[in-house]
Amino acid sequence: MANTKLFYKPAHAIIADCIPYYENGVYHIFYLLDYRLKEEVGTPWFKITTKDFVTFKDHGEMLKRGHKEEYDQYVFTGSVFKTPDGLYHIWYTGHNIDMDPGNYVQAVMHAVSRDLENWTKIPEDTFIAPSSGEYEHRDWRDPYVFFNEQTKEYNMLLTTRMSNGPKLRRGATTLLVSKDFKKWEIKRPFYAPELYYAHECPDLFKMGEWYYHVFSEFSRYHVTRYVMAKSLTGPWLKPRNDKFDGRAYYAAKTVSDGQRRFILGWNPTKEGNVDNGLWQWGGNLVVHELFQNKDGTLRVKMVDEIDNAFAKGQALKFVTRDKKPVDLSHIESLTKVFTAYSEVDNTNTYQLEFKFRYHSKAARIGLLLNTSPEDDTGYGFFVEPHHQRLVFELFPVFPQYSYLSVYLERPISVKEGTLNTLKVIVEDNMAIAYLNDEVALSTRMYNFKSNKVGVLVHGEASVENITFKKIK
């Protein structure tokens, strides 16, 4: 894979779950590194730092993999926390595929540091799930630690599964408490809706009067979700749009500098680097900025620093498939789909900004990427007013099973006659769309390569402009 400029990926490896921590103007992004090599067993923690989510400094390995006889052969997700004595703590998941074969025991483990760089493991603080009781012992992971100001106790949220209940819907976020930050007592299920197999990578934050519990659904949709409440004891409400992105964005956690909040997840690669390959574990870092709506629900937009990393754009001119210039200011194409094309500079990283209005007869309006009018191939992000959704897929989709684009769509709220702005970043085989500073949708594009882009209208729409921007 080509070296990326915006969406970080370590050389000769991939980035998986991110554990962000902010201090003194610097975002410390700890992450799980997977070498994707059969002979390399286990995942260590590495770290990068950034001040703008555009440029990154590599700090190397932070937590080494344990030996074959130790719990943390795989060093899985956790959290970073600073206690009042100035000591930094990582509570993390240890997983050993050779220990207790067939049961895959997971352990919660502890490491400390004075400088966020050099970490010492404390094996005596390790604990596993009870051998009997209300929790399954195979899912006991992803500790998220915070200090509860109301109870004056340290709290830990864990990914767990209940011992009883619907077999495939026992996923729960469980609360543990501690007075001394070493010994932890299981309290109760923090959130157990009997909806998902597991709630991975739990996260929690407060914005205004609302608490937000973020988790990644290890189940049907395989996405990062959130629920909201005005108390840590609930009730936890599920908003209409409870996702931050689509299927190609996972294990996301949030971080704040006290003023702004960001969510960091990974965009997965695909097996064989082909469109119809299965989604894999890990890929490239993707960061969105979070905002709160008046009703307390959340929305995402492109990070300003990433947007500002692009130079001033140039307005594109379009031609039809038979090379005739076309005016996009008003398009009415009711009986067949209208398409037009433009050639852009052959660059690895660029942004398209598409401003348009749709009218009552509009069924679909979109941007075509890596498109070929001669071969009738390519991809597209499409706004569908009738369905109130933003969707990514092949265009055209042929044959019907040629692209596993399941769940690459987001609910939207657009109105006839209002100006919409669709921004799309393309970098190597990645693409991320943002609609109206409210919705994000990430994806991959492998099979088709082209420096042509296009516009599609089925129905009636007015295009204000389509701008092409190179990275500075």
Protein model, in words:
This protein is mostly beta strands. It folds into two domains: 14-307, Tachylectin-2, Chain A, CATH 2.115.10.20; 314-470, Exo-inulinase, domain 1 (Jelly Rolls), CATH 2.60.120. 1% of the residues lie in helices and 53% in strands. The chain has one helix at residues 304-307, and strands spanning 14-23, 26-34, 45-50, 57-63, 74-82, 88-95, 106-113, 120-121, 127-128, 135-148, 153-162, 171-178, 185-191, 199-207, 210-217, 224-229, 250-256, 261-270, 279-292, 298-301, 314-315, 331-343, 349-358, 364-372, 377-384, 389-394, 409-411, 420-427, 430-435, 439-444, 452-470. Strands 21, 22, 23, 24, 25, 26, 27, 28, 29, 30 and 31 form an eleven-stranded antiparallel beta sheet that branches. Strands 5, 6, 7, 8 and 9 form a five-stranded antiparallel beta sheet that branches. Strands 1-2-3-4 form a four-stranded antiparallel beta sheet, with no helix packed on it. The longest helix has 4 residues, at 304-307. It is elongated and about 75 Å long. It starts with 13 loop residues before the first strand and ends with a strand. The mean pLDDT is 94.
